[in-house]
Structure formats: structure tokens, C-alpha cells
TrEMBL record, chain A:
This is Response regulator. Pfam families: Response_reg (PF00072). PANTHER family: RESPONSE REGULATORY DOMAIN-CONTAINING PROTEIN, STRESS RESPONSE REGULATOR PROTEIN 1. It comes from the Bacteria. Keywords: Phosphoprotein. InterPro entries: Bact_response_regulator, CheY-like_superfamily, Sig_transdc_resp-reg_receiver. It comes from Marinobacterium alkalitolerans. The keyword Phosphoprotein applies. Residues 3-119 form the Response regulatory domain. The modification 4-aspartylphosphate is found at residue 52. PROSITE patterns: RESPONSE_REGULATORY.
Automatic annotation (TrEMBL), chain B:
It comes from Marinobacterium alkalitolerans. This is histidine kinase. The chain crosses the membrane at residues 6-24, 36-56, 68-87, 119-146, 166-183, 204-222, 253-270, 291-314, 388-408, 414-441, 453-475, 503-525. The keyword Magnesium does not apply. Residues 648-675 form a coiled coil.
Amino acid sequence: MPEVLVVDDEPNILLSLEFLMQQAGYRVVTAADAEQASRLIEANRPDLVLLDISLPGMSGFDLLEQLRQSDATRDLPVIMLTAHGREVEKEKGLALGANDYITKPFSTRDLVSRVGTLLADHSSEG
Amino acid sequence: MQTNWIVLTIAFSYLALLFVIAAWGDRRAEQGRSLVNSPTIYALSIAVYCTAWTFYGSVGRAATTGLSFLLIYLGPTLAMLSGWLVLRKMIRIARAQRITSIADFISARYGKSGGLGMLVALIAVIAIMPYIALQLKAITVSYGVLTEYPNLTPPDLSLQDFWNDKAFWVALVLAVFIILFGTRHLDASERHEGMVTAIAFESLVKLFAFIAVGLFVCFALYPGPSALMADAASMLPNLEQHFGLDQIPGGPLGWFGTLILATLAFITLPRQFQVLVVENVNEQHLRRACWLFPLYLLLINLFVIPIALAGMMGGMSEPDSFVLTLPLSAGLDALPLLVFIGGLSAATSMMIVETIALSTMVSNQLVMPLLLRWRSLHLDPSRDLSGWLLGIRRIAIIAILILGYLYHALIGEAYSLVTIGLVSFAAASQFAPALLLGLYWRGASRNGAAAGLLAGITVWAWTLLIPGFALSGWIPTDFIEQGPYGLTLLKPYALFGLEGWDIYTHSLFWSMLVNIGLLVSVSLFSRQTHMEQTQAALFTNALRPEAEMAAIWQGQANRQELFQLVQRYLGKAATVRLLGVEPLDRHDDSPATPAMLAAAEQGLTGALGSATARILINSVVRGEALDMDSILSILDNTSQTLEYNRRLEQKSNELSRISAELRGANDRLRELDRLKDEFLAMVSHELRTPLTSIRAFAEILNDAEAMEPEQRQHFLGIIVRESERLSRLIEEILDMARLESGRMTLSPERCDLSQLTRQAIEAVEQLFQQRGIRLESRLPDTPCPVIADPDRLQQVLINLLDNASKFAGTDTPRVFVDLTALKQRYEVHVEDNGPGIAVAEREKVFEKFHQIEAGHSDKARPQGTGLGLPISRGIINQQGGRLWVADPKTLTGACIVLALPSAPDETQEVSS
């Protein structure tokens, strides 16, 4: 069963994401900030990360950059989640190596399907 | 009879004495103890009017035509009596404009016209030449009489053996004398003090000699004047008739004509202008001269009739020589010598002054202008040309005297003394219209003056000079009788059929008619140049008090000209400000005050530099070497360029100012735009966050087929809370927008801060209890009146308490509210025992959407929007208060202070 790490500082959003991932049949771990997320990635090696950009302290972009620099996490699928709707943000995320980019508020079905697709692609590749 | 050598020795000794006197006068002048600074010397120098013509000719004229000789002296007397008006004006102008001769004066009056000056100089030379010849003739004749008496052989006048002719040597000696004293140095004012001293001395000599003869005749030849008269009455039967008005040529009209001629010539003869105007050192001298000179004329004429009568009774021929022949006939030795010296002095004084005056004109008005125009000489006008000038003058002096001698030697014989004199008078009087009208009529123009002069002198030549030549036998005389080519209308002595007048009055009438007529009519129909206008104004206004004051600036200027000049460079507004006058009417000729000139110079100096400004002011004030038109045309180009430059600079300054403003505005707009983008991004982010939760849970609930009721309830609760958060957020964003655009409407009233604080505490009490936070307060019992919108104030207080609750410590959270009354204000301190706010962060908490990281993430506490504090500060600021972060006093965490000014004292009134 694939494991998904959900990172968001907004507790209610985190709760909704956690519920959606569990409902879709994934194991879920959650983090409220980037440091915690970083530790969980190292410890749990999740199969996918749902990463919010605005986080207290280290931002989602910083974490993504860090992940892409490390061999172990270079190919880890990451879906950026952000309340910033601006194109530049999206481009920046994709340039840094995010696999997908989802704007808040999101459609729950769309989110679940994208996570599913990405996990499938990735498992077939790997 | 006198031997030649004695006469010659005495004559040359007399000239030598003149040298000594002139040298003395010059020395005194150099030492600053001027001799000529005396009204008496001035009056005596004017007596240069009495030439050999007076000395010998008056008696001759009295003997032949009776009283008419007096007219020659009545005219100057009239002129002198009006001198305080006319002559003073001329003197003042001459001083201000540094006039050197009558030609210069007329030229200056008409816009410094070089052509007009040349014309006047030329006419003067032609007209005066016979007059100089007359003096030489008088000397020669008197010498002949003195040495040959009683054999009166008229001197043989021809150019052969001219070296034996005394007149030639007299002319040469005089030339040397005049060169020595007339051209020793150049003086800007062309004054010759030594010469004037010598002339005054000569006036005394001739008066003394003539009176001596008169006394001799009256008291030695006859027992007394009455006896002489009685004898004459018995011996000369026609005496009464002889001295009647009928005897005067031309009758009463001739009187009048001759009188006018003498009056005008007294002022316009070059030598008279020289002594009257140019050599005058102080215009106050005129006062004494006004009566002293007429007195002199009276004295020198006193014995004319007795001498004439005595001569006539003696049956002598040659009445022009009576003065000399009477004492000679009595066998006297000394008196005839004295008379000869007197005549010599009369002749030489005239020749000296006349020659100096003419040579000045010739050099200044004729030769120098031509030389300066003659490019091949490469004369640089800026160079010192005084050497040239002196050389030219010396040559001119010699040339004038030699020409005079030639005239004398060749045609002098044909005319009597009086005739020659009157012909010259008639020519000189042609200057009078241009001169006198120019003093009083501003409209007199250069073209008018030139036309009048040319026409007048032509008529003069036709009616006097050419017939004179004809009568001398030089040309056939038939044109006098029949008119040229038989045109009787053009007969020189009866022009257009005007007959029965004496030739001088006739000539004067016609020449003045055309002269004045053309001067007036041409002036009326010709335009004056700038320079002419300036000069005309300066001349006609010379006696005005303002004009005198303007002399401080070495001259006078026309106010309107000055205004135009300054306006050319500084523009109208600045000129009005500078000169303190409004733009003037074109025809306004009021002179500028010295203050205006100074201001104008200062103004122009600022714009053009001092040198140029000086030149420009000079150009209006005196308009020296360059004529106004050329200055203006040269400078108009410059000024247009300057004006363009000034405008361009103005425009470019304006453009750069505008562009700077635009840049600034643009920067501000960009900044505002950036802030707006940022704000929108923030707002969008803040709105999306609760919306995300709401949508996610709504969709989850929607899609869920089966869900545990508790979970459903939980999710629904989240949706409700997030919806509330969203509503609150929207409210706050709107508040923020209202605050920033200044559209937040507050209704301030007198309210009690302590009561409001108490109400706020009550409002949050339950919430604090839920969260387990201990809320303490210290509020005064007395009211704390402030002027504020109570609802908004309460909103702020609740917001502060809410914030404090979020950041209060985790273990035993505490919040403390303290209200203190200070001198002029009340302060509400809201403290917590949380982590506090770093000093660097203290101002940032008031920035929009700035989120303070709570030291812990307590999910039970609602997140802030990041707008609470900025809005609170906005509201408080708008009510005259302040909101800031301070160091805590009671607790250890954050401390927010709200300060509001206390309301002014009033009857206790508490609003709820």
C-alpha cells in the first residue's frame, strides 16, 4: 500500500487531505511544517508527497529543492499544493522539479485522481 | 609813416606775447588753477565776434550806409539776452554729448549722422574761407596804410612774389601759433584754455585800441563829442538822412533781414559756437556774459559814428581805413601803431578760433570718417588714433589758412570787408534751422535737416556767392541781369520776381524759406531711426531736471528706449518689475531716471555679463561710436538666440521637471501596483485557505455514501467555522480597504474608555474561560473620557484581547489588562505571558497579513487573518491615538499599548 506524506500548516486542510488519501486507500503521514516533513521523508520513504508551498519557516519550495538535490529523493513524486494562484509560482514549482501542481481550493476528485495517476506512473517506471 | 621793420617787429612781438599768454593759460589749466574759469574771460572770449570787420569795417559801413552797422551788433545782443534759454541748453547738451563743433552738434542731434556732419563741415569751410581771407586782407591793408601813408596804393594782390606778401607770412605764423596751442594735445571736450585766455586778452587789446582812437577823435581832434557833432551837422548837409533808416540797404525790411542774419550767425558761426558752447567751462558764466558781452559791443561801437563823421569831414577816401588814417593824418606815431595792433588782434583772434573750429570739423567730420571707411588703410577704430587725429588737424590748419590766403590773394579785391562778412554770415545762418529747431522740436529728422541745409546753401550760393564771383570778374555777369539762359525768374538778385530787397535780405528770405520749409516738411514725412529718436529726445529734454540727474550715468536715456532694450533681453514682466514702470506709449519721451538706468544695467548684467550690459546701456544712454540701429540689429540676433535659448532652457527645465514628476509618479504607481498585487495575492491566499477546507469537506461529505455521524458532525463543524472565518476575513479586508482609502466612517463621541474596556473584557470572558486563560485587569473607578467611535474602539480592544489569548503562555496562560490615566492621555496595556515579540518584529506586526508564528500550534485556537493589528492601528490613528508594541510591565510576553488622548473637560457625561 503506497504511503503518502501530506504537508500543510493549515490543520483543517491537513485533516481533509489525510481523510481523502486514506479513503483512496493510501497510508498517510502528515506534517505541519517542512522540517517535520523532511524528517518523515527520511524515516518513512513515502511514495508521494503532497506539499503546501506556504509553510512557517522553511517553505515548500525549499523542501522540494532539497529533495531534488539528494539522490535518494530525486525521483520522489511531489505534488505542490498552493493557495497562490499565480502562474509564476506554478512555473517555479515545476522548474524545481515538482511532478504536478494543484491550486487551492481544489476539487477532491481531481486531486485523488492525480495522486493515483502519478503513483501508477511512478510504480510502473520504477 | 612807420618803417616796415618797426611795424613788423611790433606785429610779431604782439604775436609772441599771445604765445606767452596762451602758454600761461595752458600751464594754469594743467595746474588746475584755470584762468578761464571766470565769467569775465568767457564774455571777453565771446568778443571774438568782433573781427577786423568790426574794427575797420564798422566805421566804413557807418560812413557809407549809416546806422546799418549797428544791426550786426544788435543781433548778437538779442541772441545773448535770450542766451539763458537757448545757449544754456546747447552748452548742457554739448557737455553731456562731448560736442566738439557745430558740425558735431548738428550731426549728434540728428542721430549722429556722419553725412550731416560732413555736410555741415563742408559748408562751414566754404562759407568761412572768405571770412578768413577778409582778416588777411584787413591785416595787409592796414599794414599798407601804416607803412605807405599817405600814399594809399592798394596792395597788389597776386600770387606772384607771394613771399613778399605780409599776409602770407601772417598766415604762416598764425598757422604755427594755432598748431602750437590748438593741437598740443587732444582733449575729449576739445577745450583750449590757453587759446581762450589769449583770445580774451585780444578782445581787451582791440577794445582798448578802438576806444583810444575814439577818444583821440572826440577829444584831441575835436574839443569834445558835442563839438564834433555840431561840426558834422554843419559840414555834412545830408547827415540826418544819412543816419536815417532809409539809408539802410533794403529799407526797413533790410533792417529786419540784417538783424536776423546777425542774430543767427552769432550762434552758428563756427568760431562763435566754439567759444560760446565748446569752450564754456561753466554754464553759470552765461549769466555775466549775457550783459557783459552786449556791454562790450556797446563800448566798441560807441565811437564808430564820431570816427566815421570825423573821417567824412576830413574828406578821406577808403572809409574802411578811417580808424587808421585819422590818427595818421594827425601825424601821430604811437596811436596808429596801437590801432594796427588792435586790428591785428581782432583779425588774429578770429582766425585762430575759426581755424581751430574748422580744423576740428575737418578732422572729425570729414577726414577721420573717410579714413576709417577706407579699408586699405587698415585703421582699426579701436586703436588709439589720436596721433592720426592731431596730424590731420595740423595739416587742416595749414590748409585752411593757405586756402584763406589764396582766396584773399585771388578774389579778395572784389569785395568790400562788409560784403565778405555778410556773405559768410548768410552761409553760416543756414545751420540755424537745423540747430535751433532741433533743440525744441523732437520731430526734426536727419533727412529733413539734410534737405533743408542742402537747399538753403544752394540758394545762398546762387543768390550771393556766384553773383559775387561774377562781380569779381571771374565769370560773365549777364546772368545777374537777365537770369540764366534768359530765365528771368531765376535772376540771382531777384529770385521769382522778388525785387527791391537788399541782396542779403533777399538771399536770407529765399534760403530760409526753402531751408525751414524742407526741414519741416521732410521731417514730417520721414521716419526717424532709433538713434535719431534717442538723440532728439536727449537734445530737446536737455534742460529737464530728470535729464540733469541722469547725467550721473554720463548721459541721459529715453525711458521708452531703455524699456525696449531691457525687454529685448529680459522679457516684459521682468522689465516692468526691474524698472518699476509699465510699458510706455511709443511716443513717450520721458527720460529714464538714474535709478532706472542702474537697475537696467544690473538686470542686463545678470543676463548678459557686465561688459555687454555696459555697452547696451551705453547704446541707449549716449549711443556713442556705434549707431543704435546697427547695435540693435547685431544684438537682436543675439537676443533672439538668447531668447530662444532661454525658452528652450525653460522648456527643457520644465520637461525634466515633468519627467521627474512622472518618474516619481510612475515609481509610486509601480510601488502601489506591486503593493496591490501583493495585497491581492495575500487576500487571495487568505481567502483560499478557509475556502479550501470548506470545499474539501463539502465535497467529502457530498461524496461519502456512508459516514459516521460524529465524523460528519465534525466535518460540518469545520465547514461552519471556516465559513465564519471567511466572513470575518472578508469583513476585515473591507475594513482595511476602507481605512486605506480613507473611506472608513467613524462616529466619534464622548465615551468612557474604562467602561468600554470593561465591556470588552466581559465580551471575551467566556472565550478565555473556554481556553483556560486567566484574564486579569486593573481599571480605574473614575471615568476616562475620550472622543472616539465606541463600536470601533471596542472592536479594537476585543481584537487585542483575542490576539493576546492566541499568544499567551501554554502552561498557565495569562492576559493582563491595565488602564492608566496619564497627563493628557489614557493608555490601555494588553499583556500576555507568551513568548513576546522580538524588538525587530515589533513594527512588522502592523503590516498587512503579517503572521506572527505562535510559539505553539494549538489547533483549538483560530488562526489570525493578519489584518487585525493593521486595522486596529488604522482605527486608533484615525481617532488621534496610537497603537504600538512595548516592553511588558507586569507579565513577560507581548505588550500592546493603546493610547488615546483624553477628552477636553466637560460636564460629566458618559455615553454608554
